[in-house]
Amino acid sequence: MIKFSHKKVATTILDPRENFSRKEIKTEIRYDPLTGASCRLAHFGMITLQKVDFSSWDTPENRSRCPFCPPNIEKITPCFPPEILPKGRLYRGETTLFPNISPYDQYSALAVMSHEHVMPLKKLSRRILKDAFCAGLEFLKIVAGKETDLPYHIIIWNYMPPSGGGLVHPHLQIIASEFPGNLFRKLLEQSKHFYLEHEQNYWEKLCSIEKKQDKRFIGERGKGCWLASFAPLGILGEFMGIFPEIHTIFDVDENAIDDLTDGLVHLFKYFRSENIYSFNVGLFFAPSGAQKYFPMQIRIVPRTFLNLSERPPDINALQMVMQEPFAVVHPESQCAKLKSFW
Ligand SMILES: [Zn+2]
Predict the structure, then answer these.
(1) What is the CA(144)–ligand 1 centre distance, in A?
(2) Which residue from 162, 174, 189, 190 has the fewest beta carbons nearer than 10 Å?
(3) Cα of 72 from ligand 1 centre, angstroms
């Protein structure tokens, strides 16, 4: 029913490192068990991640230029009109939520997560994360109460420059839309298809199979089941938190956010041990009507510069024009290491 399909291809070279003797190099092609989208596992061991010192970015000059640092945030970030948010912005703990001045959609908000300009992973505590995600959810619920024709609710996060984040000051992006984007749309379509064909929820099945096989099953945290993706989207793999009992934004209470942030802080401990200091996050909620086949889920894709001298990004023609992700790591070996941090 759920297949983890893969194929291996081999290249033969005469290797200059070993006196031009014959050498076989393997590439593995994997197919996502839900969408069928392919990806490659190749270049193993070709990227050595190095620690980056963030403290050099946290200067008075950088803070004074940053729109998210106090006191700038109150002066130069926009407000929502009163019919959306009577106070213009939402506040919770250190989080301030306001409209993106360069929106991606009709409702496109930013949730600045901290007063501090630079927040290395170890400072992203449960409290900081919870306040930011809760503020994002509160905003999505307010919008859903006013706009019933925007079914798709998404929270995304570009953390640190390799992820494409333009500002190091940590901030979530919150989107309510009638346009889910390609991946979310594909996940919804295929989840529905699976449900209609097998009369089962794909995600519940995936969690139980992964738990049984115990190759990519990281562990559980409250209501969340955490996995290393079989067919990862990023060069350093991809991690998923699936919440089978939680579906739309209205199912999400503070306990669910506690479970989510608990999973994230454990994942971040692993990231720190591996010198992973940047990532993209997508948190997707079921639209109304999709509760039977689509649970809330978070995907975390680590990002990196390929090296620190020229700082090439980790996305090249393979991903851009072939739309083919490739990873230099094995999800199974990442998962085995991750378990000791869980
Ligand atoms: Zn700042």
Answers:
(1) 30
(2) 189
(3) 9
Task: Confirm if 128 and 93 have CB atoms less than 8 A apart.
Answer: yes
Cα 67 to middle of ligand 1, angstroms: 6
Per the structure block, which two tokens stand in for 276? 């992973």
Domain limits, the chain: 48-342
Q: How far is the CA of 96 from the centre of ligand 1 (A)?
A: 12
Q: What's the CATH number of domain 48-342, 3.40.640.10, 3.30.428.10, 3.30.720.120, 1.10.3570.10?
A: 3.30.428.10
pTM above 0.90, yes or no: yes
Question: In whole angstroms, what is the distance from residue 74 CA to residue 76 CA?
Answer: 6
CA of 277 relative to ligand 1 center, distance in Å:
18
With a CB cutoff of 8 Å and minimum separation 6, the contacts of 88 are 79, 80, 82, 98
Dump pLDDT digits (tens) for 268-327.
999 999 999 999 999 999 999 999 999 999 999 999 999 888 889 999 999 999 999 999
Query: 76 CA to middle of ligand 1, Å?
Result: 12
